[in-house]
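Figure S4 source data
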Amino acid sequence: MFAGKEDFKKQYKAEFMETIARPFEECTKREKYEVLAKMICSRAAKLHTETKLGYDKRRAKRVYYFSMEFLLGRLLDNYLINLGVEDTVREGLADLGENLDELLSMEPDPGLGNGGLGRLAACFLDSMAFLGIAGFGMGARYRFGLFKQKIRDNQQEEEPDPWLSNGYPWEIRRSDCAAEVHFGGSVNRRYENGKIYFDHVGYQTVMAIPYDVPIVGYGGKNVNMLRLWQAEPAEEKINLDAFCRGQYSEAFRERDEIEAITAILYPDDSTLAGRELRLKQEYFLVAAGIASIIKNYKFTYGADNWAKFPEKVAIHTNDTHPALCVPELIRVLLDQEHLEWDEAWEITVKTMSFTNHTVMPEALERWPIDLMQRLLPRVYMIIEEIDRRYRENFDHSQPDCQRKLQSTAILWDGQVHMANLSIIGSHSVNGVAAIHTEILEHDVFKDFYQDMPQRFNNKTNGISHRRFLLEANPELGRQISMAIGNSWLFDTYQLKNLLRYKEDPDFLKTLRKIKYENKCRLAWYIERENGISINPDSIFDVQVKRIHAYKRQLLNIFKVMYLYNKIKKDPDAEIPPCTFIFSGKAAQSYDFAKEVIRLINTVADVVNNDASIGGKLKVVFLENFSVSLGQLIYPAADISEQISTAGKEASGTGNMKFMFNGAVTLGTMDGANVEIHELVGKDNIFIFGLSSEQVEDYYRKNNYHSSQLCEEDPELKEITDQLINGFFKDNGEEFWSIHDALIRYNDEYFVLKDFRDYLRAWQETVQAWQETERWTRISLTNIALAGHFSSDRTISQYAEEIWHV
């Protein structure tokens, strides 16, 4: 790409005159970032053309990955690394008096997701490009993302996230590839030559405009694309009469309603209007994506070769949000390509595959039938036919058949069950960790599993080690490569070679030095952003993830309250300096999670401002968690808190990011923690709490009594009483809703039940941390054995076992 730094400087300075008609010296830092990003994007686009020609030449099977979220993070540094030019660019910019890191900070985090689902999808795209799989993301271009989280008066407040306000240099608008999406209207039946046809009429047309973002694979050989769809009016309309009357909002009402489809990720669905908008979002993505796939297939293979479709196309739905891919593909094959039902159905099932990411009932989407009928009349008719045929073929002779039919039917109790639609309409259904898949097979979807076990399989999640280790922790990356070579960047199982350094004091010392520097870097950020001075020699105990009751940030902050109470009673208590770091967003309408955020920040106010504890404890909540903030946090962590209620976390990917960076897991036997435990052994992870079987047993027998447990434990009772007895009187109102959830409503997620064992495991973790050499060996073991959790491994398994590419 560049022959050296002199060639880079020459091309870079020339680009300013081409792009903004001003010399480099007269431009702002933002302009210098934007020009650099445009240079790299232009190169990536050319590489994509070459990649696509290669795919076309070998008639490669294409994989289309549908997801409501793609949390890409900042792309410039990632792509400089993947193209192998980061050092060249850094040195060239230094010669020009610029700092690459300062330019990198100009880039916004794209507001295209919320949490682990989106970060996983981005890692998968990275690995597909690296492995040379013809994989393409299908997502939505949210103008304001989810929201920008601000903490004011200890509470979460949501602000718009205008991440596109300065433009996005990585995207290419492709108006020539626009697709029509239809909402509402009615369906007419007509008969010709003995065949029935369905005509959708009276609908509202929304244009889906694609914006393509290049996905550069490591090594720069392959560049795939993420296609993001934006909703726009089919034609410019304005109600002139309303405008002339001064009713300006009414004049632009239709345009505003259409643009709202891709304005904000996950609009609040507590109202009918919010639910309708969410369903519109999901169908908009699906309809636009399927139209694009069909158009490309017909261009490549012709309009009369549909039997080959499953051989050349794989469509994967990431959770239930894109479940409408199933009826939409059938609709296109029936109504536009005029196939018969049986052929369309066979093609669809062979093409579709589905990943489930949850065991939480509320996350298994269901839509009211009347809403689906009104908004998507033809699609609903197809869903109705799929359900009818499923019921017709259902084995009614089996025991308990009525209950099984109720649990597996698509239409039941006035609702469309999207997970059931996804399972019935796909040839593969996978969970994302061994324990998660086991729960799906034997609990959540057990009736499906009994009837069609061949469809179910496990694909344990993975993360991009190039993003979350090499880019996020460059000094560690360099040290690893100096020790074992750089083959680990292509094959993460090579990290096992680090185990030979477990007894090397110089290597262990270097690891500690790198960890300390990363802690100093995070400490500087915290002091700048939060005004809190923290000790980099303290234990960094970290929990960063979406705020949810089952993820049990509450258990973590109760531990902090316990330690604070202990120090207040005994100032000489043997507790090493600890910094507890939290970050994550609560959904806008999730009041309990917001109360947990308020509690964490309230406890932080009390602890951080109490001079009597001698700075032994510090509590920090970092607002607006993002990929780039995660890249700052993961390398600095000592303890990785993965403490969800056993059986509730599908997999987790934060646990993997921490592991690659040498943090040590303190967690339950839940999600991928189970597989981390199997890999590193009991001496290199700290496990506590109920097992998933014990949790289910308590639910089944209903023999857990949280109030009694609390009364029998004075220290635990003190903590729960502090929620409501005026302890926080100077820091806001009391926390009755949290207290009631634990005591009155019997502690659904077993925070109180696991509390004592959690303290025991935490104290063992701290003791290990104090034994410096032992802790560093544990940390090294985790890095060395993290290779299994690369998204390269995960995607290789998807490719071979599900997509057949």
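Figure S5 source data
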Amino acid sequence: MIDGGGRLLRGQTAQGNKVWGNKVRSGWAPALLGMLLASTALHGALAATVTTGETPAQVAQQGRTTTFAIAAGPLPGVLAAFGQATGFQVLYPSDIAQGVSSPGVTGTLAPQDALIRLLAGTGLIARFVDPDTVTLEKLPAQAGSAAVLDPVTVQGGLSRDPGRSEGTGSYTTGSTNSATKLNLTPRETPQSVSVMTRQRMDDQGLNEIRDVLNQTVGVSRLQAGALGSDGSEIFSRGFAVKNFQVDGIPRSTVYGFDDSISDMAVFDRVEVVRGATGLLNGVGDPSAAVNMVRKRPTPVLQGYAEGQIGSWSRYRGEADLSGPLAENGRLRGRVVGAYQDNDSFIDRLHERKKVLYGVLEADVTEDTTWSVGVEYQKHRSDDASRAGFPLFYADGTKTNFPRSYNSGANWAYFMHDNLTVFSDLKHRFGNGWTATLNVERNNREYDGLLGYAVRGNLNRDGSGMGIWPGRWNSDLEQTSINADVNGPFELFGRQHELMAGVGGYYAKRKGLDYPLWYITGYDTSIPNYFTWNGNIAQPTLNPTGWSQTDERQMAAYAATRLRPTDALSFILGGRISRWSQEEKSHPNTGVATFKKRSENGVFTPYAGIVYDVTDIWSVYASYTSIFKPQDYKDVSGQTLDPLDGDAYEAGVKAEFFGGALNASAAVFLIKQNNLGEVDPGRFTPDGGQAYRAVKGAESKGFELEVAGEVMAGWQVGGGYSHTTVKNANGQRMMTYVPQDTFKLFTTYRLPGALDRVTVGGNIKWEGDIHNGTGARRYDRDGYAVVDLMTRYQITEKVAATLNLNNLFDEKYLTSIQTNGYYGEPRNVLLSLRATW
């Protein structure tokens, strides 16, 4: 037998296998590989074998934790690394580990928790035979014996979410499935994937998804309005990011369904897959897909309460409680709540939000788990503008407004009220396969009373400007259902993986129509733009009718990972989609209109190849096509034709220190038709911004990224990206989106007597951008923002964190797409957290 550290042992026996000297005696069961030992009877699972008192492992492991940095990979190697980290022994017949992969583990954990994560999805179970030894066995088809214990079942949320980042302390994760629904390591995924972990969000004080994306490699946020408005856009690889998912369930493309203002209190991590993601989204942009993964109940009691205070009267309270609700741990629950109230560096702007989240998780049987939950978020911004301020005077010279200028009327607001109920049922088969059914119901309301002063041409005496008034108000509903299976299969003597599923959603937006932009008899003018404080008469806005949009999408999809050799993997997949959208308009006066668009039998292919050059380095390439109906309209009010094209990516990835540190370099090429580009100075018949379809658009560039632990206590996350978008004539497009960005955040926990202190820093740099032509071309130079943070562990359970953002008070514009909008000046945030 060989122990987890690779050492030969003598005189050991386990499950009938005898070791004599340095050889396993022939004629007995297959040789044993890998010897490691876990700890406490797997949080009560092993207690099933002991009727009284504590198990030997529970006695041996009380209070012990170990720092792990074990990459995903073949099970024998993963267990060997576990043995080196702990000195424990795990005995198992070699045949049950052949061709089996483990998701790995990172972070500081109790050894039993680490072992549970290592075994997640392997179809193996563990039981202690003495204080120093734990054995692994295959999960029986029907686990009826109390002596057979499955850590995956008992540990609940840990095993069902192998990519879980909470509690790991890491800036990377060992598993992600947002690209293919196959549980792969970042290195095994043939696309660029960035993961914003729970630890990094906490360290940087990132409480909103827009802030998370602003710190994500290869993503640019063009903020041009208050929270809750649609004045801000997210871009990646030159295209707008419209694809949002929650727990892998896509959101509708209908206006109002994206999660671009979500609070992060309820989420474990955010996974951003850059490039086309049509395999799982169906209708999708070639930019990126943002998958927010919710927190899940934990098998042990844990929780925290946190208070924050910051610049501009920012106050926030947040609490989280999770743990078992039954003595045997088969029922678990979690509840999260948050409330925030703040002003802004922008005059008069005031924001509030409320968040409540609860989820229950039950082991219906040893192999079946059912969870149900509810998520509620309400956001409101008062005295809020949808845009910033004019960049030019009427004579063509540039303006120079203070950062605090607010172009919103003092009665203008944006409100979003979101309620989501979700449930999933998962069954684990004895052969390593799982089947999952997800159902979700999403009810929303948005209400925006618009009044923002960017109308007209600004004269130097302050005249010439007015507001754009109106109101948007709609109720939204989305019902989603997805069912899929996932597991290993054998072909030509080797083990491979397969994922297949069906799913879809029905979404509806319905609401009253109100006057927009042009209101008979209403004076929109502002006497002096420079001294205006938002005081202007509120218009009377009576409904002019009602409108409704219905969207449906159904699809079947599949992906397989074929492994002809240990070093080579092919990932092949495809999706057949059916999409339709109906728009109805019923004015109080006039003729009702009806418009329907549909796309049937659209096939989206997916192909990837990964080759492991060494145990650390891999090279990869991938291809997929692009399909996305658009909401953009041209000057005649006609919707632009769907986007279509092809996306290619190739690169190199690496796992250092057993997967504790991930690095990647990628080049990409996206060829696309019907790209919607702003048609400057032109508007649709209803007053909205007009767009034009560009044929033969091409985006290409490269990205570099690193995330994880460089050395003990030193975490890093960030990288560099370059993107160029050109039309068929070779002219640069999207010039108002940065071509080059660099982002890097790092923290270091001081050693020795100063180990209560963690220090960190962040730098975010964006290159030059410009917009417009001739005398009205606006150029914004590149800029860099530097942030600092420090955390002091006051006691074992209480810590204080201070974030100092924009240290040098850099003044910069976050958007010049149509108007100007400034980024935040220097500010501070103090957080105090107590955990238990």
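The chain is about 5% helix and 50% strand. The CA atoms of residues 496 and 682 lie 54 Å apart.
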